[in-house]
C-alpha cells in the first residue's frame, strides 16, 4: 500500500512503541529489496530519497518507481523526501505525490529554521503531507558539512509549537554514516517537552543498546543510509565473482546484492520492533477516512531513561 495518511502511520508507531526504518533507496533493486524485506517481516516501512538520489534516479522516474512498488506491496509503505537541496525540491516532490517531506534548516539560526519550517508546513499540510524538521546537526557530511551539534530541548519545544511540523529530527549523538552512542538523557528531556514524535538520522551506526532504549522515547522513524549502501556494494562485489550457470551474470550479481540489502533491511525492521505491525496498520489506514490533523506524543508517558 502506498501510504497517503502519514500522520496515522506515525501515530500508530508512536502508540505501539516501535520505530520504522526509513531507507535511502536510489534504484529499482534497492527499493524492491527493502519492500520484500518488509513483506517478509510483515512490517510497515519507509523509502526515502535525498537530493542526490533524486538527481541520480531522475525526477520523472524515481518518484514514480517508488510509488509503483509501494502500490503493489502487501505492507504499508510511506515514501519520504529526505534532505532536499532547496525548497523548490520539496515542492517538486510534493507535486509528485510524496506524503512525507523534510525541511532541512538545521544549519540556520533558530528563528530562520522555525520560519522556514512553518512556510513549508503550511503548503505541505494543504497537500496532505507531513513535515519533518531538524534541530542540531547530525554531521557526517550530509547537508550540514560534517559538524555535529546536539539539539536543545527548549528549541525543540519551540520548533514544534511555532512551526506546526509533524515529526522532529533531533540530533542527540548519532552521526550520518558513522558509529555513535546516543545521549539518552537529552533524548528523554526532548521527548518530555515536545508533543511531536521524533526522528533519528545516522541510524546505521547507532549502538544497538542505545537504539532499543531510544525507541520508547517517542522515536518513530530512524534513517538508514550507510548500511544500505554497504550491503548493496559488498553484494555487487561478491556477486560479480560468482560462477554463473544458466543465469545471466548481471542478473546473478544484482540478485545477490539485492539479497544482501533484504537481509540488512529485515534485521533493521526487527530490531526496531516493526515486525508484525503491517496488518493492523493496513486495516487502520484503510478504515480511517481522514488523516489526523496533528500527532501528539504528549499524552503518552515517556519511558524513563535507565541511565539516569
Ligand atoms: Zn540525515
As a percent range, the share of strand residues is 5-15%
Number of helices: 12
Task: Please give the largest β-sheet.
Answer: 8 strands, parallel, barrel
CATH class: Alpha Beta
Span between N and C termini?
Answer: 41 Å
Question: How many discrete structural domains?
Answer: 1
Bound ligand species: zinc ion
Calculate Rg over CA atoms: 18 Å
- At the third CATH level, what is the topology name? TIM Barrel
Known CATH architecture: Alpha-Beta Barrel
Quickly give the structural class: alpha/beta
The helix/strand series, from N terminus to C terminus, equals: HEHEHHEHEHEEEHEHEHEHHH
Helix content: 40-55%
Major sheet strand order: 1-2-3-4-5-8-9-10
Number of strands: 10
Description:
The protein is an alpha/beta fold and about 300 residues long. Helices cover about 45% and strands about 15% of the residues. It has 12 helices and 10 strands. The protein has helices spanning about 5-15, 30-40, 50-55, 60-70, 85-95, 110-125, 155-165, 185-195, 210-215, 225-240, 250-270, 280-285; strands at about 20-25, 45-50, 75-80, 100-105, 130-135, 135-140, 150, 165-170, 200, 220-225. α2 (about 30-40) crosses α11. The protein is globular. The chain binds zinc ion. The site of zinc ion has 6 residues, from loops.
Amino acid at each position: 500500500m502506498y501510504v497517503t495518511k502519514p500522520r496515522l502511520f506515525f501515530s500508530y508507531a508512536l502508540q505501539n512503541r516501535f520505530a520504522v526504518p526509513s531507507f535511502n533507496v536510489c534504484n529499482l533493486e534497492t527499493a524492491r529489496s527493502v519492500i520484500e524485506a518488509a513483506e517478509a517481516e510483515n512490517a510497515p516501512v519507509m523509502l526515502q530519497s535525498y537530493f542526490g538520489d533524486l538527481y541520480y534516479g531522475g525526477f520523472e522516474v524515481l518518484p514514480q518507481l517508488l510509488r509503483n512498488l509501494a502500490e503493489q506491496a502487501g505492507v504499508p509503505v510511506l515514501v519520504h523526501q529526505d534532505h532536499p537541496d532547496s525548497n523548490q525540491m520539496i515542492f517538486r516532490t510534493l507535486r509528485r505525490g510524496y506524503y512525507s517531506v523534510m525541511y532541512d534548516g538545521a544549519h540556520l539560526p533558530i528563528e530562520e529554521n522555525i520560519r522556514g519550517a512553518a512556510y513549508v508546513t503550511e503548503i505541505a499540510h494543504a497537500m496532505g503531507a507531513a513535515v519533518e524538521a531538524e534541530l542540531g546537526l547530525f554531521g557526517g557530511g550530509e547537508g550540514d558539512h560534517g559538524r555535529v551539534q546536539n539539539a536543545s530541548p527548549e528549541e525543540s519545544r519551540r520548533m514544534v509549537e511555532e512551526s506546526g511540523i509533524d515529526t522532529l529530527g533531533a540530533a542527540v549523538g548519532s552521526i550520518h554514516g558513522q558509529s555513535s552512542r546516543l545521549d539518552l538523557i537529552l533524548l528523554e528531556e526532548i521527548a518530555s517537552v515536545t508533543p511531536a514524535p521524533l526522528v533519528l538520522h545516522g541510524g546505521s551506526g547507532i549502538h544497538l543498546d542505545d537504539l532499543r532504549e531510544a525507541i520508547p522515547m517517542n522515536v518513530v522513524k530512524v534513517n538508514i543510509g550507510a548500511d544500505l549502501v554497504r550491503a548493496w556494494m559488498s553484494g555487487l562485489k561478491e556477486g560479480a565473482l560468482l560462477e554463473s550457470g544458466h543465469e545471466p551474470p548481471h542478473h546473478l550479481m544484482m540478485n545477490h546484492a539485492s539479497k544482501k540489502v533484504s537481509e540488512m533491511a529485515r534485521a533493521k525492521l526487527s530490531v526496531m520492533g516493526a515486525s508484525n505491525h503491517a496488518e493492523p496498520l493496513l486495516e487502520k489506514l484503510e478504515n480511517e477516512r481522514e488523516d489526523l490533523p496533528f500527532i501528539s506524543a504528549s499524552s503518552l508517558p515517556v519511558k524513563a531513561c535507565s541511565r539516569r
